[in-house]
Design a protein that fits this description.
It is a single chain. The protein is of the alpha/beta class. It folds into two domains: 356 residues, Glycoside hydrolase, family 3, N-terminal domain (TIM Barrel, Alpha-Beta Barrel); 171 residues, Rossmann fold (3-Layer(aba) Sandwich). The chain contains 20 helices and 16 strands. Strands 11-16-15-14-12-13 form a six-stranded mixed sheet. Helix 6 runs parallel beside helix 7, helix 7 packs parallel to helix 8 and helix 12 packs across helix 13. It starts with 14 loop residues before the first helix and ends in a 23-residue tail after the last helix.
Amino acid sequence: MAHIDLAAAPFNLDDEAMAWVSATLAGLGPRDKLAQLFVLMVRGAPEMFLDNVLRFKPGGITRVFTPDLESEIGLARDLMSGSAIPPLISADLEGSRMSLPFGTAVPNPLGLAAADDIADTEAIATIMAREAHAVGLNWSFTPVVDINAAFKSAIVGTRSYGSDVDRIERHALAQIAAFQANGVAATVKHWPGEGFDDRDQHLVTTVNPLSFAEWDEKFGRLYRAAIEAGVLAVMAGHIAFPAFVRELDPHAGVEAFRPASISAVLNQILLRRRLGFNGLIVSDATAMAGLGDWGPRDVTLPEIVSSGCDVILFSDDPDADLMRLVSAIADGRLTQERVDEAVTRILALKAKLGLHKAQLPPELETARAVLGDPASAITAHSVTSRVPTLVKDTQNLLPLSPERHHRVLVFSGDIVMPLAPGPVAFSMPERLEREGFAVTLYTPGMSVNPRDFDLVLYLFGDETLLTRSSIFLDWMKLTGNLFGAMHRYWHDVPTLMISFGFPYYLYDAPGVKTYINAYGTAEPLQEAVVEALLGRTQFAGNSPVDAFCGSEQARY
């Protein structure tokens, strides 16, 4: 096995921890070494999966948390006490609707980038990490260091800190530091960099189209900074980087478009050797079509490990996938040496997090105290109030008042979330009614007389979505018919458009006179927008992206 310096960054293990890694690796049989390579997604009540997880003995799980705190604490403690080697417990802590359901509601990365105060980002990341640690979570697949370059990219959207590399770097480093200081390993993603391809790697292998020099100034800089800051993990995306592959082999052909998750060139040469990353490499979710496009699972699953990833993320059939690795070792496609390297880094991450000391997660009352800390709510409220961004108000509409804008017609497609069974209604209309407005919710096909209203309000709630090629203003779906889709009210009635998510709707509605981005759909953000609309607070956000989509037309 190639030597891995566990005393060096980012693990920085002491002699005791390194001895545990060595002894634990030596005590594992071939089957259990392979099982350590897996992080399994678990959803639903613990009794639905706990026995199978303990039987399989994965390196870790990714938990889709329920609102039942007591059950989640019990699960974490059962996993730790029932496992000979403590598992990693992970999640995507991305803020907004990707927060813990029983935790403090906090802005997503794009919202924090709009507030653009590093102290705010440090404070929010600290809250997230303290609450995560209190429920046994020790690894997050964040921060996202992708760049909002292609505005039609639905997969980057609100998950990134924007389009400016300086701003992304500042906030990502603040998040890494806060997470790792509070017992949660951070992961930068999606290697080698997303955002210049407007497609979604859940659906197709996406391509980073930059030259190597361009990449080095942008993504190279971001990953070097994260590595120098001691980030513990990098997630290899199902993203190709043909320029670098062709730098080494000008005749690479189709191999130039091999996704990073199964690319030894990108993982072992560029990330490990050139950038000097010594931490853990985790693949992106292996069920995604960005990997499945490339080849059959019998081929690609072993390639994840042989190409340099230390962790296989998710499996619909862990036993079958384990046999895929066994077969690959038997026929030489995967070596035992490479497996041992990967398991060594997995164990090193566990030791870095102190899991080798066999401490159980906090008990329920301790978790409740952390999650119920009033200081966290005060901090989150203060930061959230500085997120909403007034992009334009060329009609001088704001502030609103129930006297001048009493009768409000609301068009909305509701809040759409990737893991929810259906859309969720906005609370904004009810909030406005409590302020003295008379609100009418538009229903498809409804006859509208502009003279019956003093304000037309459009509400959109699409945060970054998975398996959706693009996010756009679907006028036909919004209005229910062709003629409604073609009608614009802003020449007859004052009109306001608010996006609580995807920040680029001016591309489809350049003529709207007043437009606001709030970046996230959580209730505190809806409250913050109402406060600013009524003039009780200022719109303090500073757009972290070009909300005009490069169009002068949209500025007027």
